[in-house]
Design goal:
This protein has one domain (about 20-145): 3-Layer(bba) Sandwich (Chalcone isomerase). About 25% of the residues lie in helices and about 30% in strands. About 25% of the residues are buried. The termini are far apart. The protein is an alpha+beta fold. The chain contains 4 helices and 5 strands. The chain binds heme C (HEC). Heme C binds next to strand 1, strand 3, strand 4, strand 5 and helix 4. Heme C binds near residues 56 and 140.
Length: about 160
C-alpha cells in the first residue's frame, strides 16, 4: 500500500511539475522592462496590422540578454502591447487597448519557429486569436534570423 501511494505521489509530482505547453498570457507584463515605444501612423507599411501606439516589454531574462547583445535564453518573454492612437491638439495619446502579442523562448517546444512560441490575446477578453503562428507571425519575424528573430535590439 505504502509503495503504491509513493508511486502515485511520484507520478502526480512529475505530472504537475511538467510545464504547460503553449504560450501563456503574460500576467503582470506592464511591470517588466519597457524596451521600446513607437507610433505607427496611417500610410506606414505596418499600419494595417499594427497601427497605433505600441510598447515592447521584456521579462528579466529577455531584458538582460538584449541589453548585453546576447541571444535570449529559454524562459525569455517579449510582449508587443498595442493601443489605438488618438490625435488631439496636444499630440497623439493612447486610445483603446487593442491586443497583447507574445513571444516566449523554448528551443525544444518551438523548434519549428526558430525557438520562439508566438500568440496574441485580445486586450479586453484575453481571447487568443492566432490560428497559425508560422504564417501569421514567424513568416515576418523570420527576416530577423540574424538577431534571433527579434526586431528589438539594445537601445543606445
Ligand atoms: C509584417 C511583419 C510582422 C508580423 C506578421 C508580426 N510581427 Fe511581431 N514585430 C514586427 C516588427 C516590425 C516588430 C518591431 C516593432 C518595433 O520595433 O517597434 C515586431 C515586434 C514584435 C515583438 C517584440 C519583440 C521583437 O521582435 O522586437 C513581439 C513579442 C511580436 N512582434 C510578436 C508577434 C506575434 C505574436 C505575431 C503574430 C500574431 C507577430 N509579431 C507578427 C513585425 C511583425
Amino acid at each position: 500500500m505504502r509503495i503504491l501511494l509513493c508511486i502515485l505521489a511520484l507520478v502526480g509530482f512529475i505530472y504537475c511539475a511538467k510545464k504547460e505547453p503553449g504560450v501563456p498570457y503574460p500576467e503582470g507584463y506592464q511591470k517588466w522592462a519597457l524596451l521600446k515605444s513607437a507610433l505607427i501612423t496611417k500610410g506606414e507599411p505596418l499600419f494595417d496590422p499594427f497601427g497605433g501606439i505600441h510598447h515592447i516589454y521584456g521579462n528579466r531574462e529577455a531584458q538582460s540578454a538584449i541589453e548585453a547583445g546576447q541571444t535570449p535564453p529559454d524562459g525569455s518573454v517579449l510582449v508587443f502591447d498595442l493601443f489605438e492612437a488618438v490625435s488631439s491638439d496636444s499630440g497623439d495619446t493612447e486610445g483603446a487597448h487593442k491586443f497583447v502579442a507574445v513571444m516566449i523562448k523554448d528551443s525544444e517546444q518551438f523548434k519549428s519557429t526558430g525557438g520562439w512560441g508566438y500568440d496574441a490575446f485580445k486586450a479586453d477578453t484575453k481571447e487568443r486569436f492566432v490560428k497559425d503562428a508560422t504564417k501569421e507571425c514567424f513568416a515576418c519575424h523570420k527576416s530577423q534570423s540574424g538577431n534571433d528573430f527579434l526586431f528589438t535590439t539594445a537601445q543606445k
